[in-house]
Write a structure and sequence with these properties.
The protein is of the alpha+beta class. The chain has 14 helices and 14 strands. The strands form three sheets. A six-stranded mixed β-sheet has the order 8-14-13-11-9-10. A five-stranded mixed β-sheet has the order 5-6-7-2-12, sandwiched between helices. The protein has a three-stranded antiparallel β-sheet with strand order 1-4-3, with helices on one face. β6 and β7 form a beta hairpin. The longest helix is centred in the middle third of the chain and has 20 residues.
Amino acid sequence: MTDVASPTDARSRIGHLSAERRAVLMRRLAERTARPEQPPAPAPRPPAGTDSTVGCSHAQRRVWLAAEISPASAGLHVTTAIRLTGRLDVAALQRAVSTVVARHDGLRTVADDSGPLVRQRVLADATVTVRRLDVDPGAAAGAVEAVRRERFDLRRGPLLRVALLRLDSHDHVLVVVGHHFVMDGGSMGVVVRQLAAVYTAAVRRTPVPLPPHAVQYPDVSAWQWDLLGDGRLERSLDYWRATLAGAGEPLDLPLPKPDGPSAGTVGVHRFTIDGRAARPLRPGGLAPGLLAVYTVLLARYTGRWDQVVGMFVEGRTRAETTGVVGNFTNLVAVRTDLTDRPGFAVAATRVRTAIAGALAHQDAPFEAVVAAAAPPRVVGRPPLVQVAFNLHNHAYGHAGWHGLGAEVWPVSADHDDLDLTLVAVPVHDGTVRAAFEYPAERFAREPVAALAGHLTTLGAGLLARPDRPVSAVPMLPAGETATLLAWGRGPGA
């Protein structure tokens, strides 16, 4: 009788591979799945003139559970704010909102928990009225935050909120908030671009330049469940078991905690990566390049050179879903082994390979991946992934608002389920707006600000010397280095 290795044995063997052999294995796994199995296109639902109820997607179930646990949290509110300068036609804006809501089932969706499992109910009609508020310019940031934090009723809806803050006659801030149950960051980009297009058509008195949607989010939800049937989910989970074997204990960042109470709040440190510094990352892909620098930074801070970093993905793997409003977001685990301390060129290649494999299996829900990988758990810490990377490619503020200047207005974060998230937003001028988001009760502000400085300094050094071992590249800014040298010399030096 032939012995068959158990999944645990296989994970153990993979976990003991050298960094070089693991990289080869991951590359081969990625090559095998570089062309992921293409599911059939979602079948359009029949036209509905009445409410319809369909099953929830994996993401919606996850969001529903989170909302039930923390109903007052604004962490599930997808928000953008745009400063519009010029002569604004409020009636045209209201027509734009009504038109966009009518176009998308997702914006007319509520939760129906009358049965054993929560379902999504698409309302035949839903009214979203633009709320108009006169606000002193000095109080605008607080007003945006107040609109963002207002609670939604998932059972009654609507799950989209639009407010127009009037700073003066030619200066407004448009705030758009949607619940994560019905939308994600990509969907917000769709909504804002279509609002701008319909607004422009209304002002110009021309036809709306948007074709009807053949596919809606309920179609995609049904297709998602079919996709993960017939053994396809299990094949993806086999990949994740192999990739994440021996991933180790949760990652601990050695950053000081704050002195005062700050439970339940989210810290944000914003910084900018200038275009000249970001340019060398773009040929190999901005996301892999930034994630590679981030991974090296985390390794340098923690001493853990075999890293698992989460990466948020949009999950729109079919062309038909590009303009659909719904929650497609998933979190994938990107594991990179740098225990041999290679140069940055090699490290970046390993990150790109890991990303390719993760994207080829991104349809597996993250919670299923966690269950399959069975990582060590620590009470009070998120399993498998404690740090993450999120690249936004949604140019909200530069959609064509006829006769108006448009600029993105900063919005607070409220994502405190992970220890640290690096958010990056490429801007049209080549710069990258970045932010570290973190639970304010876990880390003090000053060390996180220093972390941002170390990221930019390390990135410049890695790109300047891509053949130098990543463990040997300086990451302290010049001013910080001078201070440390002065401390080392002492007062009498």
